[in-house]
Structure formats: C-alpha cells, structure tokens
Amino acid sequence: xxxxxxxxxxxxxxxxxAATSAALTDVSAEQEQLDRDQLQAKIDDMRALTALxxxxxxQILAYLWAFxxxxxxxxxxxxxxxxxxxxxxxxxxxxVGGTAASALGLVSVVLGGLFRNAGEGGFLxx
Length: 126
Fold this sequence. Notes:
The protein is an all-alpha fold. The protein has one domain (17-118). The chain contains 2 helices and no strands.
C-alpha cells in the first residue's frame, strides 16, 4: 500500500448549500425548543416553591395564633383565679417568656430559610 492515498470515502461533490442550511435550521429549532423547555421547568419550579411558601406561611401563622391564644388563656385563668386554677410565678415566667422566645426564634429561622434570596443560598434564582 505504498501507492496513492485512497480518497474513495470522501464525497466527490461539495455538500449541498440548501441541505446544510436546512440542517442548521433544524438544530437551531431544537435548541430553541430546549431553551423553552428549560424556562418552562424553571417557571414550574418557581410556582411550586411559591405554593410551598404560601402553605408554610399559613401554617406558621396558625401556629402563632394558637400559641398566643393558649398563653392568653393561661394568663386569664391565672389572673382571674378561675376555679382552682393556679400556677407558680416561675411556671408562668417560663411559659410566657421562654416558650415565646423559642416560638419566635423558630419562626424567624423558618421564615429566613423560606424567603431568602438566591444570592444568600436560597431557593430561587435571581
């Protein structure tokens, strides 16, 4: 095989300009569809996250209302000495002060995690 190189696999005619243009158009259309699909996926994710935030925000608010109502009930029962209800001062201080601080701290952590920006390590892209 020391003769001339074999160019039989190489086509004799240059590629058709119309075929090349059609192939590029097909690739471009596929890329545009892929971009649209990716944007739609991001929109769907953002909608799902918004729904989750609404759900958790409502649950946190309901928890705070229930906790506040419980503390108010205990304080009213203690203040008006309803029935034989009576708690030591230390228990009241612990209930109202310590538990309220824990509840508010929990809410702060949860809300901070739900509503921070992407630049701060959050869920949503900018």
